[in-house]
Amino acid sequence: MNRSVRPENVEFTVKAAEDLVLAGKERSIVRVSANNMYSCLMQKTQRFSSLFRHYSKHHGLPRESLDFFFTNRLDPEDSPESVHLQKNDIILVRRRVIPTILTLPSHSDEAYFATMRELFLNGDGSDIMLEVGPNREILRVHRLILTTRCEIFEAMFRRGAMKESEDGVVRIEDHSPEMVSKMLEFIYTNRVLDMAKLNSNQLIDLLTLSEQYLLLPLKHLCEVAAKDVLSVGNVGRFLCAAEKFNAAYLKEYCLAFFMNNTNEIVDDENFREEIESCPSMALTIVRASTRNVGSSLEPIPKRRRLNMPFDEPDYLSPGT
Fold first, then answer.
1. Enclosing domain of residue 17
2. Where are the alpha helices (DSSP H) in 76-138?
3. Which pLDDT tens digit goes with each residue over 98-145?
4. How many domains does the chain divide into?
5. Do 242 and 271 share a structural domain?
6. At what angle do helices 248-260 and 280-296 cross, to 10 degrees?
7. What is this structure's pTM?
8. Are 242 and 285 in contact (CB under 8 A)?
9. Are residues 229 and 284 in the same domain?
């Protein structure tokens, strides 16, 4: 006669290694005091998940708030047999330690740029005075920042080099206060916030300033901004400025624009006036036209790639 084999059981104790607390925002309640002993009987092959569930429910504690340990932390899939639990052995139960998630400290360059822009705008602590335009509008600036960021100002304010180094006053007569202010904004903050709002005349003025004060990154910003306002009516002025200041990217873009809009441009009065005032521009256009004609005769036409004037983040455009 077949008899069913009764599963082998093991008797053991669950001991609270510390106070087991039901924690809340308003108050916390000790559900199980430290060293409390709780007797248990389990089948040797029974999973510990049933013990965990029973113990937490019996004592009014969330299951996820407790961890159980024998020689190591017990897994819910473990069993008394798999961890070699014997009669009268003790399993310890502790509050689960929730690992602290450390938020990496971060910083934003925007705060720095905003502070530098505010320093420029309010002129606090300034020790240099710029007299700009025919009305000698005053812009107050800081010698250290100008000499650090601009080699022209560095040479100007070198001790004993020029009159400006002694009296701290600089005259800038042939530019508008608005565009000199934009140049200074770039010197202070490495950007010009409203560059996209400048018109063609303002961009050419700022391009001229960038060339005079050897601010190559600002020159590149002007070149890129110019292509967004380029038109039939101003391409001549931009091309002339590109020729004069060796602005390679702007020059190539103007020539490409000219080739795509030749008929409209040559009939434009503004363009004819620019040709007369900048004769070298005519030769540049002729050479570009010849280059394009020669390219069109090749079996496989090759399109010239317009290289951006900057590949590395030496400075920041307003959108970054």
1. 9-95
2. 109-122
3. 877 888 887 788 888 899 999 999 988 999 999 999 999 999 999 999
4. 3
5. yes
6. 70
7. 0.61
8. no
9. yes
